[in-house]
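example protein:
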Amino acid sequence: MTPQQTTDVLIIGAGPAGTCAALRLLALGHKVALAESAAFPRPQIGESLSPGIRNIFDYLEASHLLSQRNYLHQLNAHVIWDTTAVQTVSAAQRGPGIMVDRGLLDQDLLALAVERGLQLYQPARFESCLQTDTGWQSQLRQETRLIIINSRFILDARGRRGNNMQDRVLTAPPAVAIWGHLPAHLMPGDTHIEATEKGWIWGSPTFDGQFRTITFLDPKELKGNTVPVAFNNVLSNTRLFEAVRNHEINDLQTCTVFTYAHTSPWQDNYLRLGEAAFSLDPLSSTGVEKAMRFSLQAVIAVNTILKTGQTGLAQSFYEDNMIASVSSHTHWTSNYYAQAWPGQEHAFWRDRSVPYIGQPDTSTTFYNRLKGKFAAPKEKGPDRQINVQQELQRLWHEQVRLSPALIFRETPCVVDDILQLRTAIQHPNLEREIAYLEAVEISPLLSLPGNVTTFGDVIQEWSRLLPFEQAVRIAFFLWDKDILCTEAP
């Protein structure tokens, strides 16, 4: 008889996105099973972790995993980007990034999840799933054994294998990555990043005594060229990678880099995480961090449904956060590409210097919402330098009113790991709607009594609820954004 198990959530794939979701769901008291097709540790590229990863590991009570292996911490960076001059960015300036062995780190994260109650099937191949009245019924295969898993949710964290090309929309022009290794002692023990006319290069010492160099270039550079020739063409005339240029590398590897978003990432409580949902341009080295952070947001959505049944609210929250992640990263990378010294006369840089989104085979509601975020953002003026003491005296007796452009709307907010509707404010000077400032719900503060007529009255009224200094900071933030207006209408 085929064995069956019932669980709250089945996760497919044990990369950082999948195990992050598993750890958090277990902490919230849910039953979780996970299927991983490969035996661990497995080779995995993507060892450079951005500084924000440490906060996530702290939150998961997993920070010890970043120090129990021989990982590389506090690397300085030498950069040639906006000019041809070399700029050195210290580890203190960069933040506490880390070079890890992804195979070992993924194994350690998974072992921690098992220790905390995860039901693991490994190696086990996910074969199929069927929607039922209560959720999903999935078939796993371990060697010759078939296993049936009944779950409320499926979280697909299989990376690029978790979606088909026809379900993706590109959010950047494709690139080709070519990489190889040389002994670490031939290069300084720091990270190197250099823009060239044909593309850009990243290099860093790795945990195993080597120095990895990756070039990113237009796929057209491979037409009529061998991989070694294309690799050396990008490296020609570089300043930071001269030693790589002069050292023959025999183990060059290559792959096409697609940056994309899934066009229907949430379908009937089948959610995609990590690179099954979206991938980011490698420029920022934040792929693992963004994947884990998005998993935490997806867990909030799942937890909300499991505990309250509010599916619509949860799905909107999940999709809004994915759209924000993809669009904000795309605008950041296009702006950073536009700053590179080779300039717009070179096709590689010109094509990447504006936000890009392709046209999928089939448009979906989610795709149309995502596409709407790819318009160029409004240019922001310089930040005002405010002398609070002087301005407070000047504004204290000024008449105050709310901006006519201010809009109040209901939005999902996370309260004790569950989504609840709160009233947020929208305004043209805000990058996004906000419901809280300094952990204070903002809309009740803006429901001003009729006798509150001046800037000073506002601060005194808020000081009944908040410390005076905090009331001043919030009032000045809203005044600086022209939400609290002291000018005559």
Q: What stands out?
A: The CA atoms of residues 263 and 363 lie 8 Å apart.
